[in-house]
Design brief:
The chain is an alpha/beta fold. It is built from nine helices and 13 strands.
């Protein structure tokens, strides 16, 4: 069959805009498609929750591709191994309590699971603000990352969500915006972002799961953003905590969604 270039163009444009419109009003919007954001997206989408993930970069996966210092293997502990089993990622035992997995297999499988379960990932889009009605955060303000990079004066667009998940990693960009624009009214010990503490894998892995919770009404934090916001240690190239954090946040949000029905 003869191919028509313009039909190809129409197919892309129409299907993309249909997708964006369908996901302009969702149950959960996630900022950042690193391991924590994607894991949260998978466990939410699996329960038929409408979830959209917005990722600044062309590639999704955040810091997982590079393992530790570009050695693309990652380590998970005993609890994290349970998630690798659930998402069907291969791993090897290194010694008791330490398992290694291929970083590329892990993040590509997580992405595949999340998208096949129904989560929609929009890459090349940056979260630049939150949408507010009264004091209630109820959506994300988005722009093309290319617009930000070129420093163009172009106004953004918005999407509505019942709940937001901040999964932007170490910088906790979404919560930073909330503090800057609404004030230090977070559900943390100080009301402000407490700040990330130095590397301590044993503590950081436990803390990141504890800290994966609501940080401002309707806004949940996952992954390294959770430890930055609530003030806990980083853990470097051990990734079980990121996966467990995404799953924990998905459970918290699912509970909230159920109480709304
Ligand atoms: O950084 P990232 O992988 O965060 P994470 O899921 O995992 C942290 C680990 O990678 C590692 C670690 C593990 O022990 O310490 O650092 O918590 O993924 C965050 C994603 O969010 C995107 C960013 O490009 C990355 O892919 N991101 C950051 N800010 C924005 C954003 C933004 N404003 N809008 C959209 N995406």
């Amino acid at each position: 069959m003869k191919l028509d270039d313009v039909v190809i163009t129409r197919a892309i444009v129409e299907s993309f805009y249909k997708k964006l419109l369908e996901y302009s009003d969702v149950d959960v919007a996630i900022a950042g498609a690193g391991p924590a954001g994607l894991c949260a997206a998978y466990y939410l989408a699996r329960e038929k929750v409408r979830v959209a993930v917005f990722e600044r970069k062309l590639s999704i996966g955040g810091g997982m591709w590079g393992g530790g210092m570009m050695f693309n293997e990652l380590v998970v502990g005993e609890e994290g191994k349970g998630i690798l089993d659930e998402i069907e990622v291969n791993y090897k035992i290194y010694q008791k309590g330490y398992y290694t997995a291929d970083a590329v297999e892990c993040i590509s499988t997580l992405c595949s699971k999340a998208t096949k379960a129904g989560a929609k990932v929009f890459n090349l889009i940056s979260v630049e603000d939150v949408m507010l009605v009264g004091e209630e955060v109820c959506g994300l303000v988005l722009n093309w990352s290319a617009v930000q990079m070129a420093n163009l004066h172009v106004d953004p667009l918005t999407i509505r969500a019942k709940y937001l998940v901040e999964a932007t990693g170490h910088p906790a960009e979404l919560v930073k915006i909330i503090v800057k624009k609404i004030g230090p009214r977070l559900l943390t010990s100080t009301g402000d972002i407490v700040g990330e503490k130095p590397m301590w894998a044993d503590m950081g892995e436990k803390e990141v799961v504890e800290n994966s919770k609501e940080a401002y009404p309707n806004v949940y934090v996952a992954g390294m953003a959770a430890n930055a916001v609530f003030g806990a240690h980083r853990m470097g190239p051990i990734f079980g905590g990121m996966l467990l954090s995404g799953k924990k946040v998905s459970n918290e949000v699912l509970k909230k969604l159920k109480t709304q029905k």
